[in-house]
Amino acid sequence: MRKLLSVFVVFVLGLLSVSLVSAAYVPGPLGTLDITQVEVNGEEVTPSDGLTLTGVAPTVEEGENVEVEVTFQANASVKDIRVEAEVSGYDDDEVLSDRSAVFDMNVAAGDDGTTKKVTLNLELPRRLENDRYLLRLRVTDRDNLDQTWYVVLQVEAPRRGLGIADVSLSPGTTVKAGRSLLARVLLENFGSKDLKDVKVTVAVPALGLSATEFVDEVNTDDGNVEYEDVSQMFLPLPADAAEGDYEVVVTASTDRTSAESKKYTIHVLPDERFQEQEDRLVLAVGPESQNVFAGSTVRYAIALTNAGSNSKAYLLATAAGDWATATLSEQLVVLEPGRNKVVYVDVTAAQAAVAGQHTVPVTVSADGEALETVNLGATVAAQAVEQTVPANVNLRTGLEIALIVLVVVLVIVGLILGFSRLRKDNDGEEKTYY
Hints:
The protein is of the alpha+beta class. The chain folds into 3 domains: about 140 residues, abc- transporter (atp binding component) like domain (Coagulation Factor XIII, Chain A, domain 1), CATH 2.70.50; about 110 residues, Immunoglobulin-like; about 110 residues, Immunoglobulin-like (Sandwich), CATH 2.60.40. It contains 2 helices and 28 strands.
């Protein structure tokens, strides 16, 4: 009997212990995961499960970034948790929501549980009506039903709310250096008080440019958003501005509000007249290859053109080798931009030059750097001594032929003039006889 009583006492104590353990934790809809605390902009609030929306509603302002901090508690390990925050009732296409990344909460064996804080941010638009809105906190994991909590928010207009509603840039986001960038700014007042003496500045910091205009007053309409145009602002871009992307910063402020800024990017095209061009040399050779007899001389012409934007001094050098000698009419040529000069290369084949093809290199350099190398071709042909004609004889023969041709032309012109005068005299005599 005593043993039976002992067993019954142990059984009753077991039931009581189970009851006590069960009462120690009441799981939420996600089983072992629950929300224990919610803060809105640092103020602790009491979330509701949706059956009753009670408690003090925190006040937030239009255009404000609302920070929502949610504290979770897990009594056992939970995988793939995500929390979303959303404000509904805003009549627009924007979605006022934010959500966390997926995370896990791990509880080691023997531990009572663990907690985790997650921070979400909601950027409230400036066109919200002054009213009460529901902030929905939705928690999900992999295996359980969703859990949703609600927080009431009271949205109000700030006393002074200055914003930049729009910025128009002309001729657009691409401007040529030396031209002007025209900026038009549209201000907005989303506060409950009028704004006075608003300073608006448009600047291109990288070019050291800025323009400023003042707006006497930007009115409000009982918290509804009101707009005000700013006078056009011109930014003359330097003509020598380098090509590239530049940041345009638009700022609006008053002595009683913080500065509001927006940034844009423009692309500046270069003005070719003010852009430094690379040095460029253009060469023309004529002829590039010739036949030459042993002991005779041939001439090549090399035309140099300075196609760059700066004056340049060009140094020419040549070396023919044992088979010939090469001389330059000029070794140093100084050219202004766009100018050209012809340099002659005389190549004289040696008497003992081997018949066949040979090359005479001519190198053009500037500032100690070789720019171009021209290879002049020469084909040496064997020739008997009695057939060799010096180069100066050829030149003299050419001059004599030209002189003879000139004399013949002069004789012909003289004869024509003589016959013309004789005809006039004959005509005069016939008129006298009549």
